[in-house]
């Protein structure tokens, strides 16, 4: 019995390998030289600073792409996978750790990745939620170097209230949005592409300037696509001649407040925002707003 089943297994494997090997060697045509180079470039990410509010943050020069998502959408995992750095944005089993706007330089300080506070963590006083909501809105509406928003949504729960709010802010200033349907490994291919089509159709109706993809930090699905989109928004070229010295970017304490400028900008925002959005904030930001410990 044992012997015969071993035999049939051998017979099977001896017929199989040739085709399988040639299939595995095929290169995915979506993985271009640019994507590979972009991915390598993004691995240069280094923590720059953590800002408690927009008025105390990296000078608004150059190019930025910001990551946003509800708490637990997979934002920290995505940033870590993209930059190939386990601790860059601390992926946490406990939702609600990200509390500030975190800036990362990408080889030089005028090309940046920004990690925005997550939403959805309920254990935060209502007043703090409103403060953070306002800060987020401020950042999204007024930040001139912001070239695009990467909005992460768990593929099983897309387009929640927070997501729609972010999309409306993006629309109000014609900001490009790249949507990641995260944890795509949780669904089979059929159901996953169905969600992809449905969300795509909603975003079209919202008249957004957007792109969308499936993404999984777990099995690295969609990393190259994300890297290409980001690099494109950040003006990365294969030569990437932007030589910029980190030392030229002033420390947070040297920066003048941008608050007056922000008040002067006349942006017509028509956003219908309920106040019950769960902003993901820990309350250990001190009163003066000078706590700049990175937390993700
Ligand atoms: N299956 C699966 N789980 C993921 C993936 N990305 C993140 N997670 C899990 O989802 C939870 C929240 O992830 P995290 O990156 O901390 O989310 P964040 O709150 O948006 O920063 C963690 O338990 C992760 O291990 C993924 O691609 N696939
Ligand atoms: Mg996180």
Automatic annotation (TrEMBL):
Q: Which UniProt keywords apply?
A: Cell cycle, Cell division, GTP-binding, Magnesium, Metal-binding, Nucleotide-binding, Septation
NAD among keywords? no
List the residue ranges of the region (Disordered). 1-21
Positions with biased composition (Basic residues): 1-10
Known CDD domains for this protein?
Answer: YihA_EngB
Name all EngB-type G domain ranges: 61-236
Q: Which cofactor does it need?
A: Mg(2+)
Question: Might you name a Gene Ontology BP term for this protein?
Answer: division septum assembly
Q: Which Gene3D superfamilies does UniProt cross-reference here?
A: P-loop containing nucleotide triphosphate hydrolases (3.40.50.300)
Q: What the protein does?
A: Necessary for normal cell division and for the maintenance of normal septation.
Question: Which protein, by its recorded name, is this?
Answer: Probable GTP-binding protein EngB
Q: Which organism is it from?
A: Acinetobacter shaoyimingii
Upper lineage is:
Bacteria, Pseudomonadati, Pseudomonadota, Gammaproteobacteria, Moraxellales
């Amino acid at each position: 019995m044992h012997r015969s089943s071993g035999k049939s297994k051998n017979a099977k494997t001896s017929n199989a390998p040739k085709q399988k090997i040639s299939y595995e060697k095929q290169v995915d045509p979506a993985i271009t030289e640019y994507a590979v180079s972009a991915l390598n470039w993004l691995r240069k990410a280094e923590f720059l600073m953590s800002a408690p509010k927009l008025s105390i943050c990296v000078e608004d020069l150059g190019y930025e792409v910001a990551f946003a998502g509800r708490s637990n959408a997979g934002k920290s995992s995505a940033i870590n996978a993209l930059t190939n750095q386990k601790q860059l944005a601390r992926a946490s089993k406990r939702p609600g750790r990200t509390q500030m706007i975190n800036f990362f330089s990408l080889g030089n300080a005028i090309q940046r990745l920004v990690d925005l506070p997550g939403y959805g963590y309920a254990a935060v006083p209502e007043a703090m939620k409103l403060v953070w909501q306002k800060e987020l809105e401020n950042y999204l509406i007024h930040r001139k170097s912001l070239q695009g928003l990467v909005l992460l949504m768990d593929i099983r729960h897309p387009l929640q209230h927070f997501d729609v709010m972010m999309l409306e802010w993006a629309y109000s200033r014609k900001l490009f949005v790249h949507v990641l349907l995260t944890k795509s490994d949780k669904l089979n291919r059929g159901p996953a592409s169905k969600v992809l089509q449905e969300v795509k159709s909603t975003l079209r109706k919202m008249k957004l300037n957007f792109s969308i993809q499936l993404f999984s930090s777990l099995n690295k699905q969609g990393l190259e696509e994300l890297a290409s989109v980001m690099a494109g928004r950040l003006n990365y070229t294969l030569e990437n001649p932007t030589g910029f010295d980190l030392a030229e970017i002033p420390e947070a304490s040297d920066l003048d407040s941008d608050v007056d400028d922000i008040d002067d900008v006349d942006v017509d925002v028509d956003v219908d925002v309920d106040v019950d959005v769960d902003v993901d904030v820990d309350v250990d930001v001190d009163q003066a707003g000078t706590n700049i410990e990175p937390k993700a």
